Amino acid sequence: MAHPPFPLQTGLVGPETLPLLLVLAGLGLSLAEAMAPGAHFVVLGVALLAAGLVGLVIGPFATPLVLGLLVFVFGALALYGYREFDLYGGKGEGRTSDSKALKGKIGRVTERVTPTEGEVKLDEGGFNPYYAARSVHGELSVGSEVVVVDPGGGNVVTVEGIGPGEDEIDRELARERARRARERDEREREPEDVERI
Questions:
Q1: What are the structural domains of the chain?
Q2: What phi and psi values does residue 147 have, to the nearest 5 degrees?
Q3: Compositionally biased, Basic and acidic residues: which spans (predicted)?
Q4: Which of 39, 41, 126, 145 has a C-alpha 20 to 30 A away from that of 139?
């Protein structure tokens, strides 16, 4: 006596239980996605769950062929929705980037930052926005606004304090004014030195 190759043909599991199996598989994949986010199971989990629920509603019309077609249709809709709404980061923001992308990011000091130690929280710092930090010069107190000037390897960033309303252009202008003032002072001293001789 030859045994049928599929469990549905043995009589142990009837075709009416197939929608329930789809619902359970969809719930299992959705739960796996919730436990370990990464969007690997979300599309298939939603497709199986939706096809199983529709199969439970339409009852005797839920043949394996109809359920297979429903899985395909709901899978396509779930994939479109997943890509359109970009649940994991917003139009490319969820992509992994290298440490160079941290340069210029703004953040706040969470632990006092010195040239040898400290911690900052970057506004757009990824999944874990807390980074070990070192200051360019001086100490930065907790709550100070900072900008990343050297991302290093990504684990320890070098930051510089930002004054209220001050950006890179303002800092460069201030350096230029200071340089011109030094030059002017030097020019004014030169005639005095000449007169003494």
A1: 14-85 (no CATH), 99-161 (2.40.50.140)
A2: -125, 140
A3: 171-197
A4: 126
